Amino acid sequence: MRESHSQAAGMLPFTVPESAYARLLLYAVRRMAAGGLDDAFAAQAMIGGFGVNFRRPLVLLRAFMGESARVAGKRLMVAPCCCGRMTGDERALLSAVALAQEQPEMAHDRLAETLGVKCCVGLLTSAQAVAASFADLGMPLTLALEV
């Protein structure tokens, strides 16, 4: 039992972000990773988080997730939606989005390392758009996620 607990702790080394904004992003990422880009639960979460202004962040997050799947050189580990901890891959994606506008080089490096590719400028652009959509609607991720 202890061995499986330590193995699970190694796969989920980070706690979920304290910020509601970052948790919304994490939940939507997890839902889209599990249920596809058109996942209804992800859309419902975005409606709940943004109200009538949900379309822009939802569409941009779908583009980000689609682009990450397209360019990825390896499979990413994503935890179940109800999990109170995060994988390293999830943390890297969230922190890259949070850094994308202010520190694009660092965000690009983090995305490239996480996805196992040398260059992912298109994905960085998508991350910047997602971060801008959250910030424009009063949910800035740069202050919400400790990197």
What does this structure look like?
The chain is mostly helical and 147 residues long. It has one domain (18-136). Helix content is 64%, strand content 3%. It is built from 7 helices and 2 strands. The protein has helices spanning 2-11, 20-35, 40-50, 55-71, 88-99, 104-115, 121-136; strands at residues 14-15, 85-86. A two-stranded antiparallel ribbon has the order 1-2. The longest helix has 17 residues, at 55-71. It starts with a helix and ends in an 11-residue tail after the last helix.
**In this structure, how is the largest beta sheet organized?**
2 strands, antiparallel
The rounded Rg comes to 15 Å
Label the structural class. Answer: mainly alpha
Order of helices and strands: HEHHHEHHH
Number of helices: 7
Oligomerization state of this entry?
A: single chain
Helix content, binned percent: 55-70%
Offer a concise description of the structure:
The protein has 147 residues and is mostly helical. Helix content is 64%, strand content 3%.
List the helices and strands and how they pair.
Blueprint: H1 2-11, E1 14-15, H2 20-35, H3 40-50, H4 55-71, E2 85-86, H5 88-99, H6 104-115, H7 121-136
Antiparallel strand pairs: 1-2
Helix pairs in contact: 2-3, 4-7, 5-6, 5-7, 6-7
List its salient traits.
globular; mainly alpha; 147 residues
